[in-house]
C-alpha cells in the first residue's frame, strides 16, 4: 500500500482547555481509525504540530478538512512525502503536551517557547517520533 506522511504546524485561534483537546482527539481518533490514518499531535505555546500518515487520498482529504477548521489558523505545511512504513503505526492520533517530561530538553530546541514554525522538517519529525517513543514506554 502506498503511504505518505504530512507534517504541518498551526496556531490556535483561541485558548483550548484539556476538555477541548480531548474532544478534538476523540473525533480525530474515530475518523482516523475508519480511514486507516495514524499520527501524532503535540501542542504548546498556542501552537500545534501534527504528523498524519496513511494512504495519500485519506491524508489529502483530512488535510483539506484541517485547513478549514476554525480552531486554528496560519496552517503551514512543513512536509509531504512518500514513506516506506509508518512511524506512528500504533496511534490513531497520539497526543503529547509539549514540554512534558523533558521533551524540550532532549529535542535540542529552545526551552522557553515552542516555535514549530521555525523547525526544519527533520527536527519536527524527530521531536514527534521521540514523543511517540515516550508514550510507548508510558503505556507499556
Ligand atoms: C490541530 C488539529 C488537529 C486535528 N487532527 C485531526 C485528525 O487527526 N483527524 C480528524 O479526523 N480530525 C482532526 N481534526 C479535526 C478536523 O479539523 C475536523 O474538525 C474534523 O475532521 C471534522 O471535519 P468536518 O467538520 O469538516 O466534518 C483536527 C483539528 C485540529 C484543530
Describe this structure in words.
- By secondary structure, the protein is of the alpha+beta class.
- The mean pLDDT is 89.
- The chain is built from four helices and five strands; from the N terminus they run βαββαββαα.
- The protein has a single domain, classed as Alpha-Beta Plaits, CATH 3.30.70.
- A hairpin with a 2-residue loop joins strand 2 (38-44) and strand 3 (47-54).
- It binds flavin mononucleotide (FMN).
- The site of flavin mononucleotide (FMN) has 17 residues, from helix 1, strand 2, strand 3 and helix 2.
Bound molecules: flavin mononucleotide
Mean pLDDT, to the nearest integer, reads 89
* Cα-to-Cα separation, first versus last residue: 29 Å
How do the strands of the widest beta sheet line up side by side?
A: 4-1-3-2-5
Oligomer: single chain
What value does the Rg take, in angstroms? 14 Å
What is the H/E order? EHEEHEEHH
Low-confidence stretches: none
What does the overall shape look like? Answer: globular
Strand content is 25-35%
CATH architecture tag: 2-Layer Sandwich
**Overall tally of structural domains:** 1
The biggest beta sheet reads: 5 strands, mixed
Helix content bin = 25-40%
Task: Write down the CATH topology.
Answer: Alpha-Beta Plaits
Can you identify the CATH class? Alpha Beta
Helix and strand layout, with pairings?
Layout: E1 4-12, H1 18-35, E2 38-44, E3 47-54, H2 56-68, E4 72-82, E5 94-97, H3 103-107, H4 121-139
Keywords, separated by commas or semicolons:
28% strand; 4 helices; 140 residues; Alpha-Beta Plaits; single chain; alpha+beta; binds flavin mononucleotide
